[in-house]
Amino acid sequence: MEIQQLGDHSPDKFASLALAPKGRTDPQEGNWGAQEKAIDDWLPINARRNAKWWYSAFHNVTAMVGAGVLSLPYAMSELGWEAGVTVLILSWIITLYTLWQMVEMHEMVPGKRFDRYHELGQHAFGEKLGLWIVVPQQLVVEVGLNIVYMVTGGQSLQKFHDVVCHDCKHIKLTYFIMIFASAHFVLSQLPNFHSISGVSLAAAVMSLCYSTIAWIASASKGRSADVDYHLRATTTPGKVFGFFGALGDVAFAYAGHNVVLEIQATIPSTPDKPSKKPMWKGVIVAYIVVAVCYFPASLVGYWAFGNKVDDNILVTLNKPKWLIALANMMVVVHLLGSYQIYAMPVFDMIETVLVRKFWFHPGLMLRLIARTAYVAFTMFVAITFPFFNELLSFFGGFAFAPTTYFLPCIMWLTVYKPKRFSLSWFTNWACIVIGVLLMILSPIGGLRQIILKIKTYKFYQDYPRND
Questions:
Q1: CA dihedral angle for residue 392, residue 436, residue 424, residue 88, rounded to 10 degrees
Q2: How far apart are CA 104 and CA 276, in angstroms?
Q3: How far is Cα of residue 39 from the mean position of the Cα atoms in its chain?
Q4: Which Gene3D superfamilies match (predicted)?
Q5: For residue 379, what are the CA distances in angstroms to 11, 240, 308?
Q6: At what angle do helices 53-64 and 276-305 cross, to 10 degrees?
């Protein structure tokens, strides 16, 4: 959508109007309002509001069921049976509750919709403080996920190549990451959530398929003869730090909160039919799919391999070759959609800043340059730091826990103000405490693993081939 200048008013004129006091009576203010509305309609999040409840379902599945499910058996090996099952169940329940709160708060003010996470944060904490609290956390999650998905997409392509062409010359992971990134240079030009619906639907279907393949293949293989269910680490410090890192892995698996308001913004809303009804219906379906994907894959994978399981369950599995190759290609298709789901709010932020703060002309050229630069940045970081599980552990606690576990609860307490010592009051404070502990403990384990990996890793040199 090209936005034409209104009358003879230049961007400089509109900029001066924007900086003028709120009570201005400038005769150009009406034109400024029209320009603002045109820009708002052009931005990715607000462009289309005609989605149905099933859009919510597959967008949320695509957002949550990603690379994280492949690391859950590894997390189980660092938690053990009792703690692992408890953490998985509690995380599913708590994140469903906090996601419900965010859906409810999307239209907490009559006649207004909080289409972006930071807009809700600004309402709860204030215009400036809300931005400083929410935006850095959300960017770390979304950009971090895009980097991790670059790594995982490259690993899955590499695994596919090694399985179908075992005798072929080994190709470094770096090149597979670049191949995976090349698709995103094209897909990133799709303008909004509506335009990526087909990619997201395919990704949601693939996530259900490859997670099912992972646990069925593990079950078919059966329990290894030398399976060991003791914790992976052998020393007390290793067990403690491994436990902390595994909490981050689980937190990483429930990251849909960072895009839920942006997804809900695509659903039409009226006083009689608010968007929260179809949105919540889609969320319930999505969380059922999440349970079907997460629990069998993590429990059966750990049952089959014990503490010998790799940080990516599909890397551990090698037979039947055709099925493992197929599963890895399904992961690639899924990650194409997941990357775009998390990149879209970032694109929205970038384009908002470029158009509203720096007065770039909104249009195809702006998106081509800005989005291409973003994809190139995530590709470069992924090539430089291809530490899959270690990245999950660190980012999982550092930013995923706040935006998923306790920020929704704090906003709920701030805005709705439930009666002190009521069930809602106790529940939200319990979630806040759990989220704070996750934020503090899990990055410690993840950072330690990253440091250990860097000590044994030569940059720009690929890992040995896992045959």
A1: 30
A2: 6
A3: 26
A4: Amino acid/polyamine transporter I (1.20.1740.10)
A5: 34, 32, 30
A6: 30
The answer to whether residue 28 scores a pLDDT higher than 50 is no
CB proximity list for 260: less than 8 A, separation 6 or greater: 60, 63, 99, 102, 103, 283
What's residue 175's pLDDT? 93
189: how many CB neighbours lie within 10 A of its CB? 15
The answer to whether 404 and 255 have CB atoms below 8 angstroms apart is yes
Virtual torsion, Cα 263, 283, 92, 307, nearest 10 deg: -70
Three-state secondary-structure class, residue 9 = coil
DSSP state of 229: -
Measured in residues, the chain has a length of 467
pTM of the model: 0.83
Q: How wide is the angle at C-alpha 143 spanned by C-alphas 141 and 175, nearest 5°?
A: 130
**Lowest-confidence segment of 15-19, 23-27, 381-385 by average pLDDT:** 15-19
What six digits make up the tokens of 351?
């384009």
User: Residue 235 burial by CB count (10 A; 0-12/13-18/19+): exposed, middle or buried?
Assistant: exposed
